[in-house]
Amino acid sequence: MSLDRFLRNPISEWMSGAGPESDIVISSRLRLARNLRNHPFPLLETDSEARAVVDEISRALNQEAIKKISKFELIEIEHLSELQRRVLVEKHLISPNLAHESRRGAVSLSENEAISIMINEEDHLRIQCLYPGFQIYEAWKMANQIDDLLEQKLEYAFDEKRGYLTSCPTNVGTGIRASVMLHLPALVITGQINRIISAITQVGLTVRGIYGEGSEALGNLFQISNQITLGQTEEDIIDNLQGVVNQIIDHERQFRKNLLLESKTKLEDRVGRSYGILSYAKIMDSKEAMQRLSDVRLGIDLAMIKGVSSTILNELMVLTQPGFLQLDAGNVLTPEERDVRRATIIRERLTKR
């Protein structure tokens, strides 16, 4: 493996569209936050202490049991350019927070990019597993397996009463953050999304954009995740998320049917216009691109558009981000140059069968 492979290939396994309920659920992510007992937490550690954490975790990752799961590549953030870090964020392989830790952060990536083990992010360890479609239990099983193996080699900061200790109080306890990325165009078009979000927040869940906390819900993509990590078991947290997401899937499917029954011509016009604009536009900003890609994806799922796979659109949602556009161009681009290149890439991908 090489760093170039992770940067140049826009499609990670979680974008394959091959998972359950993939017409609505884009991906499932399970993340565990852990810290080492005998080291200062990342917010307080010096560069030398951070280096010691990277070395200790690297040795634990080198055990045979973990190698049997997958080949891993350790990448130190300080060796990456700002553009390379941005691309890894756009692929959801590292967090924006880790991307800023240029001096002392690292990430260990599995060959298929489904597993990302971040070191010296907000916590010493962030074990992340990303699966396509609705596979939150499968993501949990893999993250838990890796966590158990690492705990055999590392001494975690753990309190019998409070559970796993973390830098942010909202992660104390299980340290688990389970999230599902959903494509919900029908709920947005019909004006139902705010009611759904309000109901979600009342059952201990939160709604964020595609890049997590503080990000915008572009392209009708929403991340739903747990807020509570203390006082519940990991299984309870995942069961709650699973149940709520199943209800949202049912609502989205029902409102898609309603749109077909009550406003089919308008919906076909919306989808057709977006497909036509994406196929011929010479300039396209990221916000418009995501919205029109969302329309086209809905058209594919409702069989209004044939001959274009949803996998191609998953790829475009990453390929048209600023980091990828500039990496592909081989140089820094102005916003207008990015908009021109974005439109070109979309045209080429939509005509490629």
Would you kindly provide a written description of the structure presented here, covering whatever features stand out?
It catalyses: L-arginyl-[protein] + ATP = N(omega)-phospho-L-arginyl-[protein] + ADP + H(+). 47% of the residues lie in helices and 16% in strands. With 353 residues, the protein is α+β, with helices and mostly antiparallel strands. It has two domains: 1-173, Creatine Kinase, Chain A, domain 2 (2-Layer Sandwich), CATH 3.30.590.10; 261-351, no CATH class. The strands form two sheets. An eight-stranded antiparallel sheet has the order 2-3-4-5-1-8-10-9, covered by helices on one side. A two-stranded antiparallel sheet has the order 6-7. A hairpin with a 4-residue loop joins strand 3 (106-110) and strand 4 (115-119). The longest helix is centred in the C-terminal third of the chain and has 29 residues, at 234-262.
